[in-house]
Design goal:
This protein has 162 residues and is mostly helical. Helices cover 70% and strands 5% of the residues.
Length: 162
């Protein structure tokens, strides 16, 4: 493997850890205070009632599970697809609120951080989405080329990638 290829794979691993860390932090903050997160979900006025409750219950768990899978390297490229899809939805939700002229808190990192949505916050989540899609492509390419074996050692045990 060429030196340049190794550098790109290292960059991809660093991006993976950064995105996994952000998803985990966000999910963990929402799990700490589910009622505040439900309020954040409702403020976007995209879902109401029981659907909002289900979204507020499932989303933080999904975020933390995806983050854990990315961190441990389990389920590549599927974990990247899930992360990219989730971040793309977050981008669309923020864009929807901005277009509708809503002045609400992002709800990205729990009740303690009610940073208002803005074009900057939209840009940040959009960049994370694009980077996640990039990681998906890199992961698919490296699996096809045989750079990543089907079995990868994780913490002393063998994890089979699917």
């Amino acid at each position: 493997m060429s030196r340049a290829r190794m550098v790109w794979l290292l960059i991809a691993r660093c991006l993976t850890l950064i995105i996994a860390g952000i998803l985990f932090w966000s999910g963990a903050e929402h799990l700490k205070n589910p009622y505040a997160f439900l309020t954040s979900v409702l403020r976007y006025r995209l879902v109401t009632g029981q659907v909002a409750v289900v979204v507020a219950m499932v989303l933080p768990v999904l975020q933390t599970v995806i983050a854990g899978m990315m961190f441990l390297g389990i389920g590549r490229p599927h974990s990247f697809v899930w992360a990219a899809s989730l971040l793309t939805v977050f981008t669309g939700v923020q864009l929807s609120a901005l277009v509708r002229g809503m002045e609400i808190g992002c709800g990205c990192f729990g009740a303690a951080n009610e940073t208002p949505i803005s074009w900057l916050s939209l840009g940040r989540v959009a960049v994370l989405a694009v980077l996640s899609w990039y990681l998906t492509a890199v992961s698919c390419e490296t699996r096809k080329s045989g750079i990543l074996p089907a079995e990868v050692p994780v913490n002393g045990s063998i994890v089979t990638q699917s």
